[in-house]
Amino acid sequence: MTATATTTPPPAAPRVSGGKGGRTRLSFPMILLIIAGALVAISAVRVITGADDITSSGLISASLALAVPIGLAGLGGLWAERAGVVNIGLEGMMILGTFFGAWAGWQTDPWIGVLAGVLGGMFGGLLHAVATVTFGVDHIISGIAINILALGITTYFAKLWFNSGEAAAKGGSPKQSPPSDDIATVTLPGLSDLFKNIENHEWFFVSDVAGILGGLVTDVSLLTIVAILLFVGTFAVLWKTGFGLRLRSCGENPIAAESLGVNVYKYKYIAVIISGGMAGLGGAFLSLVTSHIYNEGQTGGRGYIGLAAMIFGNWRPGGLAMGAGLFGYADALQLRNGGQSVHALLLLLVVVLVGLAIWKYYRKAFVPAAVSAVIGAAVLVWYLGTDTVPTEFVTATPYIVTLLVLSLSAQRLRMPKADGMRYRKGQGK
Fold first, then answer.
1. Is the C-alpha dihedral spanning 80, 81, 85, 86 positive or negative?
2. Per residue in 289-299, is it b (16+ CB within 10 Å) or e — as a string?
3. CA 306, CA 19: separation in Å to the nearest integer?
4. DSSP state, 211?
5. How far apart are CA 162 and CA 158, in angstroms?
6. Of 275, 396, 289, 261, which is closest to residue 68 (Cα–Cα)?
7. How far apart are CA 417 and CA 1, in angstroms?
8. Beta strand pairing status for 220-221 and 185-186?
9. What share of the chain is helix, strand, coil (3-state, %, to 5)?
10. Buried b vs exposed e over 5-26: b needs ≥16 C-beta within 10 Å?
């Protein structure tokens, strides 16, 4: 993301992939092989350390619930940045979603609360679009302003609406709303029971896979299913339709897009407003599914983590979903017996760092290989010399994972070429 450039670059010559400087795209069988290898490694760690919770259905179910708001925020960032607008205001749009979702949810129906949360996020997206697209304000400055504005608005209205009358009688306060009704969950009875039975046998690999699958089919919120459909729909719209092609062209080269008749302003506005709606939906999920109330500060930086998940996913829905799942898993670890589970995963981190060191050495990147090997040795010493990890480290696990993932994936990133750059109408004429 580039915030300092002030003009859109001229059209670049097309790049031919697959050559010496091209990037190798992983095939679907290769992705499945990598996933299987990761599962084998995690299963081995579970057996060696005795930390059975790291692949339990309960942890996976919690991870899925925690990954959804992060994924929706990242999906919002993907829509905006594919159209060339950097949106670090996702955190503020999530805050608006949490507040307005809970405000409408406790008074009426939780699904009306979901709609209100989406509309609150879309309002934030509209403000960001007006500032960045129409007036050419720096995208980073506008995003920070949205975050500050959203926090101020919700703090003011929480004191005004939740601290008196019926709201106060039902449990409201200056910092939280009254509780709303639950959104229904679904469980696949036959599969859920089967996977739970296999998980209880504690077989190597098989029980771990059963635990993961069991967590994905047990007590799944209907809003989680909606979020999954939005990921599929985003891929279909942005990569399989003419509308998506025109929108992505605005993020790659708006001058060329305008010269071909694309209304760049319109597509940027649509993308940023949808971006806000996605973030608002993520916020509504937090206040209506995760906790059933609005709590001041409950987003906890998930808008920023969603942005990190989007970058990790290389601005594509599939990679974003994997990143959100990883961050949700890290978040769930620190909530469920975190000290023992995080300590067990230090051993997995050692394996990853050693593997990375071998790969870098094979690619003749000797300095990164040495750094990875040294860090891996230090983590191994830490693991062998302790039985658990400090509470402070456990609490910071999601944020540490965010930094590690971004640092390890930085070499393969390819953001939209005009992302974050100012565009003025008429440049393509």
1. positive
2. bbbbbbbbebb
3. 33
4. H
5. 5
6. 289
7. 9
8. antiparallel
9. 70, 0, 25
10. eeebeeeeeeeeeeeeeeeeee
State the amino acid at position 163 in one-letter form: N
Residue 169 and residue 288: Cα distance in Å, rounded? Answer: 19
Q: How many separate helices (H) and strands (E) can be counted in the chain?
A: 18, 2
Determine the residue type at 185: T
State both tokens at 70: 């992060």
What contacts 181, CB < 8 A, 6 or more positions away? 105, 109, 110, 292
Q: 304-340 pLDDT, tens per residue? A: 999 999 998 899 999 899 889 988 998 888 887 667 8
Q: With contact defined as beta carbons under 8 Å apart, do 342 and 333 qualify?
A: yes
CA 340 to chain centre: 25
Segment (H or E) for 141:
helix 139-161
First CA to last CA distance, the chain? 26
Please give the Cα distance from 268 to 418 (Å, whole number): 12
Cα gap 51→357, rounded to integer Å = 26
| Cα–Cα distance measured from residue 373 to residue 367, given in angstroms and rounded to the nearest whole number | 10
The pLDDT, as a whole number, for residue 428 is 55
Structure-token pair, residue 42: 């995690």
Q: CB–CB of 51/387 below 8 Å?
A: no
Q: pLDDT tens for residues 393-422?
A: 788 887 787 777 777 666 667 889 999 888
Give the mean model confidence (pLDDT) for residues 32-47.
87
Count of CA atoms in the C-beta half-sphere (13 A) of 83: 30
Rounded to 5°, the CA angle 383-387-390 comes to: 90
- CA-angle at 376, arms to 302 and 27, nearest 5°: 65
Q: Which two tokens stand for residue 291?
A: 């906790």
